[in-house]
Amino acid sequence: MQRGAPARRAPEPARRRQAPVGPRLAAGRSPPHCPARMRLRRLETYGFKSFADRMTFDFEDGITAIIGPNGCGKSNVVDAIKWVIGEQSAKALRGAEMTDVIFNGCATRRGMAFAEVTLVLDQLAAGMVIDTPDVAITRRLTRDGLSSYFINGKACRLK
């Protein structure tokens, strides 16, 4: 640097704009620009993959995180949600055939005859044909490969 020359500053780093975190509305209200939406309220599994016993997962308002050690069934919770809403690919559920979702047994327990998952959704906005505040979607699969679907306890067909 020469004597008497002004000191040069390093260029300032570009400032990043922060994306908005999201609309801040009262619980249960959709922003005006968003379509009607539903919220997961509860997931019930019975005989599904590693969940031999009846398990209930309640999803409270806000953010829900599924945490735990390797092999405890975190991915099976996501698989159960995908399966109950109609996933038809066993490969997408990390299996070779669809009956792989039925609890197969272990050294201390016999395998189950069927798997059943119920997903309860809470309607936050109008727009559904069903006139109830909650919608329960159930799927049941037996070892012979027969799959049944129910909405609020009434049999229906997957489209």
Question: Order of helices and strands, N to C?
Answer: EEHEEEE
Round the Cα radius of gyration to an integer and report it. Answer: 24 Å
Number of strand segments: 6
Strand arrangement in the largest pleated sheet:
2-1-3-4-5-6
Structural category: mainly beta
Low-confidence stretches: 19-25
Per CATH, the class reads Alpha Beta
Helix content: under 10%
Mean pLDDT, rounded to whole units? 83
Structure annotation, total helices? 1
Major β-sheet annotation: 6 strands, antiparallel
Distance between the termini: 75 Å
Secondary structure layout:
Blueprint lengths: L37 E9 L8 E4 L15 H11 L29 E10 L10 E9 L4 E5 L2 E3 L3
Antiparallel strand pairs: 1-2, 1-3, 3-4, 4-5, 5-6
Write a structural description.
The chain has 159 residues and is mainly β. Helix content is 7%, strand content 25%. The protein has one helix and six strands, in the order ββαββββ. It has one helix at 74-84; strands at residues 38-46, 55-58, 114-123, 134-142, 147-151, 154-156. The chain has a six-stranded antiparallel β-sheet with strand order 2-1-3-4-5-6, covered by helices on one side. A hairpin with a 2-residue loop joins strand 5 and strand 6 (154-156). The longest helix has 11 residues, at 74-84.
